[in-house]
Amino acid sequence: MLIALVLIFVGISCILFTVGRDPIPWTNRLRRVHAGVSRKAEWVAPDDVVQLVSTDYLRALDWLADAALGKDIHFAPRYLTGRFLTRFQTIINYQSAPNHLHFIGIMTARHHVQVRQFSEDGSRCLVVDCQTEQRIESRQLNDNGWFLLQDMGDAALVFQMCYDPISNHWKIESFVQELPTGWGNRADLAPLQLLSNLPTTIGRDN
């Protein structure tokens, strides 16, 4: 009897391990490029997966523009996850405070998206968003006649995306960093180097 129970337990464990080991449909379709080359080796996903990441990322940006105006903010978990979702919810709570001055900024740009550096299991990747014609429109919600439009130039921003197997789409998980000026002009050639420890102020915050 005891042996039978042990065998059943081992069988269940093997099934759970097999099912849980490969939850991402394209894990076995990933390929390694520049293998063994320092700072250049990375995992690459099939074209259909890359296109899905790009589409979901741009949809999240469209939603964020609407959310800045207070539209459909309850859809946040549909487009965001992890630190990015937590940060978004913190900002929403702050803006909902009674004494808060309701100023908002809406960023618009042309987006040239690259999908890079998938994790080994294919559940995460980086999106390099080379933005041109970048502008930010600042508004005061209590005064419909007041706004300020600023030209922000070009920028290359890096975001981490995470795949949600339940909803079957990618979500923005975190903002990683802004790349140096001019990186986007040679994005296909430049190696993408991420720093584990960033300065307290980066990019335009300097």
Brief descriptors of the model:
29% helix; disordered C terminus; Nuclear Transport Factor 2, Chain: A; two-stranded antiparallel ribbon; alpha+beta
Beta content comes to 25-35%
Supply Rg: 21 Å
Question: Can you tell me the CATH class?
Answer: Alpha Beta
Mean pLDDT: 78
How many structural domains are formed by the residues? 1
Report the end-to-end length measured between terminal Cα atoms.
Answer: 70 Å
Number of extended strands: 6
Describe what you observe in this structure.
There is one protein chain. By secondary structure, this protein is α+β, with helices and mostly antiparallel strands. It has a single domain, classed as Nuclear Transport Factor 2, Chain: A (Roll), CATH 3.10.450. Helices cover 29% and strands 33% of the residues. The protein has four helices and six strands. It has a four-stranded antiparallel beta sheet with strand order 3-4-5-6. β1 and β2 form a beta hairpin. The chain is globular.
How would you summarize the topology of this molecule?
Layout: H1 2-21, E1 31-33, E2 42-44, H2 47-67, H3 76-79, H4 82-95, E3 103-116, E4 124-140, E5 143-164, E6 169-178
Antiparallel strand pairs: 1-2, 3-4, 4-5, 5-6
